[in-house]
């Protein structure tokens, strides 16, 4: 048994295809298949069921893969400890970020981060919160940027921002004349929501109790994009809630309404596995983000954090 075989094992479990797993490991399919067969022979068990419908781990294979992921994480940490001591960060940084943050935060930090660490290859992927949490645990991601708190003992949270929720209200809606809004106002009809699975949707529903669905409306629509919801409202259709980062350039727009104090906010954190050792990288990333946003959004000032689940 060797580290390379464990890498092949984890790759096949991740991609569930020999061709794709081999491609990701930069080897030929026969090479990957042969090494996994040797591993199975050494262990004396079948790790994967190979069928015409794909590849699935066996019951014992699931346990072996879980342990292999732990071993590979430890090996990775050994290398990274040395990198930190040598003040030389190289290799890959895999970062997952939720879709309601990505358009507004990634442009603020990505270029500077790459310039700061030219030997580091940064991979950023938009994922929903549940996917980020699982991939952090499976060693498929190094850092997550998402809404907290998580209350997960396997993960460490480094709060960065506390971002207010704001109303985005069309000119013909009954809430438009108000200078500010309150959670009680959110029972008004016409609220647009994100699709199921977005933590932002759950937070909006935790802030307010929306009116029943208007069955007389000739259509329904739930979006996966904050920007799409804003466009719906701009074209004189109802209202929605948006994160402040999405409207930094239009805070003087009368369609944007702040909540009465205390403002509801979402806490945004950098999240890593407790075994993460490249701590200077976390500090740098946090500092870059904080320099790019208004000081009022820095974590530690809010009074009403909205839970996301």
Automatic annotation (TrEMBL):
Pfam families, A to Z: HTH_1, LysR_substrate
Keywords: Activator, Coiled coil, DNA-binding, Transcription, Transcription regulation
Record-annotated HTH lysR-type domain positions: 1-58
Domain of life: Bacteria
Keyword DNA repair: no
Entry GO MF terms: DNA binding; DNA-binding transcription factor activity
Protein name: LysR family transcriptional regulator
Organism: Hymenobacter wooponensis
Highest classification ranks of the organism: Bacteria, Pseudomonadati, Bacteroidota, Cytophagia, Cytophagales
